[in-house]
Design brief:
The structure is a single chain. The chain contains eight helices and ten strands. By secondary structure, the protein is an alpha+beta fold. The protein folds into two domains: 121 residues, Jelly Rolls (Sandwich), CATH 2.60.120.10; 70 residues, Orthogonal Bundle (Arc Repressor Mutant, subunit A), CATH 1.10.10. The strands form three sheets. Strands 1, 2, 4, 5, 6 and 8 form a six-stranded antiparallel beta sheet that branches. A two-stranded antiparallel sheet has the order 3-7. A two-stranded antiparallel ribbon has the order 9-10. The radius of gyration is 19 Å and the shape is elongated. The model has no long low-confidence stretch (mean pLDDT 90).
Amino acid sequence: MKSIIDTLKSLEFFKPLNDSELLKLSEYCIVKTYPKDAIMLYEGEHSTNISFLVSGLAKVYKMDKYDNEIFLYNIYKDNMISELSTLNSNVITCLSNISIDEDSIIIDINYDKFRDDFISSNILTTNFLNEIFSKTQKLQCIINRELVFDSTAKVAHFLSENLEMFNKLKRAESSVLLHIQPETLSRVLKKLKRLEIIDIDVKKVKVINPMRLNDIFQGV
């Protein structure tokens, strides 16, 4: 298994750090492994760490009052998992449930020490803010998906952002994530293929015109 320093070096977020800074940071990091289908955090749970996904795949979701799962978005490797609503607290409250969709490696970093040693010293501040802005953008996409997009825009957006996952899932599973009927998903895929925006080979979708695909949901 990689050393903690090697693990940190493998993440784009920590590329600006020199060896002495990486050594200092590694003193309060823990590398963990999670099996597929494990629950990493529940909504409302508190943590004193910020977490990054080194490898694997995580899913962020909520549960409605009928215990139905509402998919929000995926977290891919080399991205921050933690959702921060403030920089002033030492405790991070998870705003959603986070589960593991593939065997994953995660690195936990003591947030209080990280903030004092790096953020307060204006080291990695830009990277940190970019991660927070990325989360905000994802939330905006969720609002569009649930309140603005029609079925075609929903499917186009999902194919644009999560094509690899889409091709791993059964069509019925994708329909659940998109909150549309399987028949609707099938109809939209046929429409996109007819318009020569995608191609479908043995149930695997390939985007052949990404610009036109993006136009479908960006123009909504």
